[in-house]
Structures are given as structure tokens and as C-alpha cells.
Amino acid sequence: MSEALVVTHRVRMSQRDAHYGGDLVSGARLLELMGDVATEICIRHDGDEGLLAGYSRVEFLAPVFAGDFLEVRAELAGVGRTSREIALEVLRYARPRREESDSAADLLDEPEVVARATGTGVVKLERQRRGGL
If you average pLDDT over every residue of the chain, what do you get? Predict the structure, then answer.
């Protein structure tokens, strides 16, 4: 991602985020997190939450589990009259080490991309206020 408008959120997946056996987190949860950073992009760019109208590409590249530490990134990739193209990534930067103890965790040497997508946000013309934050 370039030096354009970028938003980053960090979050740890909890036991409540686990949806499948083996503490596996649903891809829908990752989409929800991507929606959160896309919303902030619209707020920063337009001063309005807008609406994440759709995804043109979604890739789930690695499983995510309860206890994983994730960084969710959005970058404003294109601006139309009312549409905002947004590049989205979810990276795992730390993971639990339950085999060591119930509180052990390791930072990864390199963050691992676990999901990526391209989304389209829409901000109605009459709601656009440049320089939202």
C-alpha cells in the first residue's frame, strides 16, 4: 500500500469470534472488520460514513483463529463522483502459543496476509464534506 489515505485498525480475535470447530473465525467476521476500516476511509475523506456498497474481489488466504492478533488496513485507491474504491487487507501479526501456556504469544517476524479485498464505498454528493477529520 502506498502513502495515500490509509486507515489501520488492530484487533485480537476473541473466543466469541470463533464460529467453527478448532476456534476457526468466519470469513464474514473478516469482512465486517474490513467494512469498519472502509467506513473510516469515507469519514476521513468525505466527513460521512457513506455505505460500503459491495466488494469486487475477496480472497481468504489463510485461516484465522481465536487469539490471533490482526491488523486491518484500508487504502483509498480511487475516487469517483460518489464512489470510493478501497483496497483492503487483513494481516496476522501475532498468534497465541497455547502449547507454551494459556497466556503465551509470539509476534510474527513478518505479518501474514490472511485476507484481501477491493471494496466500493458510496458517499452521496449532498453528504460529502471534504476534510472530515
Answer: 93
